[in-house]
Amino acid sequence: MGEVEARDRLALVPGADCNLIGGRLVSGNASFEVVDPATGRAFALCPDASAADLDAAVAAARGAFPAWAALGYDGRRELIFALADRISAAAEELAPLLTHEHGKPIEQARMELAVSGHHMKQLASLDLPDEVLRDSDRGKVELRYHPLGVVGAIAPWNFPVALAMHKVAQALYTGNTLVLKPSPYTPLTTLAVGRLAADLLPPGVLNVVAGGNDLGAWMTAHPDIDKISFTGSVATGKKVLASAAATLKRVTLELGGNDATLVLDDADLDAAAAGIARSGFFNCGQICMAIKRVYVAESVRDALLEKLVAKVGALKVGPGSTPGMDMGPIQNAVQFEKVKAYLADALARPGAQVLTGGQVPEGEGYFIQPTIIAGLDEEVPLVREEQFGPVLPVLTFASVDAAIARANDSRFGLGASVWSRDEARAREVAGRLMAGTVWINRHGLNESDVPFGGMKESGYGREHGVLGIRSYQELQVISRPAA
């Protein structure tokens, strides 16, 4: 079958076949293919927004802004809660589509949709009062917080609904209106969520437009978008920041990580093995804050690895539509090839030891066995870079000071963790790790009421919590003489 004939057999997915612009569902004049990573073949078409569609979405958001900002926190919260409830209620219906386009196990797809609603409510429940900085004989100084205007949100493919809805909740709750762009790898479920919002939110408050890299570039350069919230790779984040500089847009960048975990000699090894297996391999390792490097004290190396290999070796891998799977495929062909290259390079290194996995199964789809590799040094790309896949290097250390230095020797600084039964010792080590979040005796917990972001090249600003959500507002000082 030729490419044209194959494309002719694809169709727009009912319920995910339109962009949302100004409260209207717009099909557009162009489309692009969406691939099922479990097969490696396109299974559907997605509407492809044009530059004119983006202009219309931005204009609709600008027009809706004054009334939405004037609605106040309570009024906006009520509508955000209603949208959250619709998303959670639609989890069973939308989960198969999310699994189809992303590859994640169906149970995890249901969880992502349900959790999206929960986090939206958590974010829209934060107390965001104006503040009095001073009230004395020197005068009264108040800090007031205003919405920025129109926010452009660019969401990633690893948790396409959850991470998009985090941005929706933060932007809308603070009084902004929004233009949301899902990843072209996983646009369909987000478009379906846009349909849920179409008759609920005032027209123009939330606009959802799907498209490729050109659409993202148009957004970051658009003169009538006031802020960009971007989650994705470091390389793309740098392009976003450079493009936004021309109009001095406010920018929040939640970028990649190469999170290190340190297992000290007094750690609870059962807890550490379970936590590392969960964080390192959940969502096929495609999480910015997943554990991507393990440093373990020499004295407990063998005992930890025995437990860790047992956990990882027991993971069930297969198409996400098959019930009971723990892990699906890598989400897209580009990432699949990157992870395969990291794996092949690591396997070719002298001294490399594959403790479990190490194979790329034959057949269709972007599957890689969950893999643990020991015997590598610090300069191997699998250790040095962000693999974003189910291949985890384990290294040993004799000195805690040396382990901290090695963990910090990275251009990344998103997250890290420490495993120890001694809380004071763990806290001391945690304080020396250069990462935006350091967990003790766990890794990867991300709560909407807690600020999240990275140091160094892992981020620019914060999302979530009061500190993060304030980045969706403009600070104004009101100063007057004493009464």
TrEMBL record:
<dbReference type="InterPro" id="IPR029510">
    <property type="entry name" value="Ald_DH_CS_GLU"/>
</dbReference>
<comment type="similarity">
    <text>Belongs to the aldehyde dehydrogenase family.</text>
</comment>
<keyword id="KW-0560">Oxidoreductase</keyword>
<feature type="active site">
    <location>
        <position position="254"/>
    </location>
</feature>
<dbReference type="InterPro" id="IPR044086">
    <property type="entry name" value="LUC3-like"/>
</dbReference>
<dbReference type="Pfam" id="PF00171">
    <property type="entry name" value="Aldedh"/>
</dbReference>
<dbReference type="InterPro" id="IPR016162">
    <property type="entry name" value="Ald_DH_N"/>
</dbReference>
<dbReference type="InterPro" id="IPR016161">
    <property type="entry name" value="Ald_DH/histidinol_DH"/>
</dbReference>
<feature type="domain" description="Aldehyde dehydrogenase">
    <location>
        <begin position="30"/>
        <end position="477"/>
    </location>
</feature>
<dbReference type="InterPro" id="IPR015590">
    <property type="entry name" value="Aldehyde_DH_dom"/>
</dbReference>
<dbReference type="InterPro" id="IPR016163">
    <property type="entry name" value="Ald_DH_C"/>
</dbReference>
<dbReference type="InterPro" id="IPR016160">
    <property type="entry name" value="Ald_DH_CS_CYS"/>
</dbReference>
<protein>
    <submittedName>
        <fullName>Aldehyde dehydrogenase family protein</fullName>
    </submittedName>
</protein>
